[in-house]
Amino acid sequence: METVAPFNEIVDEVKAAGGEIFKMCFQCGLCDSVCPWNRVRPFSMRKLIREAAFGLTDVEGEELWLCTTCGNCALQCPRQVKQIDISVSLRRIATEYQVFPTSVKPVRTMSGSLVGEGNPLNEDRQKRGEWAKDHGVKPFTEDMEILYFVGCYLSYDARLKKVAVATAEVLNKAGVNFGILGEKENCCGESIRKAGDEGVFKRLATDNIKTFIDNGVKKILVSSPHCYHTLKNEYPEFMVHFEIVHVAQYLAELIADGRLEVDGELAKKVTYHDPCYLGRHNDIFEEPREVLSKVDKLELVEMADSRKSSLCCGGGGGRIWMETANSERFSNLRLEQAREVGAEILVTACPYCITNFEESRLNMELGDVLEIKDISEVINDAVK
User: Fold this and answer.
1) H or E element: which one contains 333?
2) Which residue of 50, 112, 186, 232 has the fewest C-beta atoms within 10 A of its own C-beta?
3) What contacts 300, CB < 8 A, 6 or more positions away?
4) What is the pLDDT of residue 64?
5) How does DSSP classify residue 126?
6) Strand order through the sheet with 371-374
7) Residue 303 DSSP code
8) Residues of 21-37 as b/e, b for ≥16 C-beta within 10 angstroms?
9) What pLDDT shows up at residue 1?
10) Are residues 261 and 291 in contact, defined by beta-carbon separation less than 8 angstroms?
């Protein structure tokens, strides 16, 4: 049986997300035309906005949970309707009612792990810094140049630990005085907020902020665009301001300042994937390309749908935790685009993108054809 939230509750929640901006929608359908879902299955953001305006949204249906918050629709909308904010506000109502379709039910289990262990993977908090052993990584102290906020996936996932190690090794090669918080670090809270649990987000954010202040943190380096976006653009809601830099930006800065010499080579054809939360949401497009251009013999080629038109990997909006049929994976389409330009390595700068691309590479049996790498791994290999 469908669960429909009361009209007033839906309208009030949507108003709180963006005033009455949803009334600006004149149903032109441009949001649907640029939505990546419509490359793999029918989905209408226009319909969702219309239903929200009239308080008719079915909070039990899967449609409410499809948006990856990639930002394509908001970028193209001629009326500046806040599609992402409205979508998230509706998910908050579903979360309040504890109503989740089957494909979304894994989100329900994330809240307990996030509150208890500070990560969505149900991993032991005490082991958050174990990846750093034997790699010259120290606990952060106030006199250090920068805090490396590692993030959940790079701390625990076997594939992504390699990205954390590569980042640490590059920082050491550049002589950067940095440290990590280890078990004191919590998830930034970005994905659980986009999945509708505002209470857990606020708890994670306030815990992190207290830890930053208590440890004298001023400048923070991140590997995840989702961490970047949240720490830079959403934590200031709590009346705090830290200097936030993504590793792609920091690598460019270290190279420009002469602290990091890229003296190796990579005789490969490489293409770069712009993560949604690094590119569209935060306008960081050129620095990653500048960094890759410093590698001798590396041939950089562009895929279809690059820069502001980049194709979402499918992991945003909390969907990294949700079930997606293989036939509906945007990451499959992206790997096909990489192959179309003859790329031997697909480089990106986001743990969600790497996770989805690696899974698609396995499903598509591209192990001998296409490598997936983080930008820090490429540069670490290119610095002798």
Assistant:
1) helix 330-340
2) 112
3) 270, 271, 272, 289, 292, 293
4) 87
5) G
6) 299-301, 269-272, 345-348, 371-374
7) P
8) bbeebeeeebbbebbbb
9) 40
10) no
pLDDT score at 7 = 47
Contacting residues for 211 by C-beta, under 8 A, at least 6 apart: 181, 184, 185, 186, 217
| 83 touches 74 (CB < 8 A) | yes
Instruction: Give Cα separations from 251 to 57, 201, 223, 258 (angstroms).
Output: 45, 29, 11, 11
CB 185 within 8 A of CB 164: no
Same domain for 290 and 354? yes
Reported as a single tens digit per residue, the pLDDT across 166-212 is 999 999 999 999 999 999 999 999 999 999 999 999 999 999 999 99
Domain final residue pick, 254, 277, 294: 254
Q: What is the CATH number of the domain that holds 147?
A: 3.40.50
pLDDT at 319 over 50: yes
Q: State phi, psi for 140 to the nearest 5 degrees.
A: -65, 140
DSSP assigned state of 310: P
Check whether residue 162 and residue 295 sit in a common domain: no
What 3-state DSSP class applies to 300?
strand
In angstroms, rounded to a whole number, what is the distance separating the alpha carbons of residues 310 and 313?
9
What percent of the chain is predicted at pLDDT more than 70? 93
Residues in CB range of 235: below 8 A, 6 or more apart: 205, 208, 209, 242
**CATH code of the domain in which 72 resides:** 1.10.1060
List pLDDT tens digits, range 99-129: 888 888 888 888 899 999 999 999 999 999 9
Count of domains forming the chain: 3
At 361, list the tokens.
């590479």
The pair of structure tokens assigned to 31 is 């949001």
Rounded to a whole number of angstroms, the distance between the first and last alpha carbons of the chain is 62
The token duo for 42 is 């029918």
Contact of 225 with 246, CB cutoff 8 Å: yes
Identify the domain containing residue 196 by its residue range.
106-254
Question: Is residue 180 classed as helix, strand or coil in its secondary structure?
Answer: strand
Where among 55, 75, 104 does a domain terminate? Answer: 104
Identify the sign of the CA torsion 20, 238, 312, 95.
negative
**CATH for 326:** 3.40.50.10700
Q: What is the pLDDT of residue 80?
A: 80
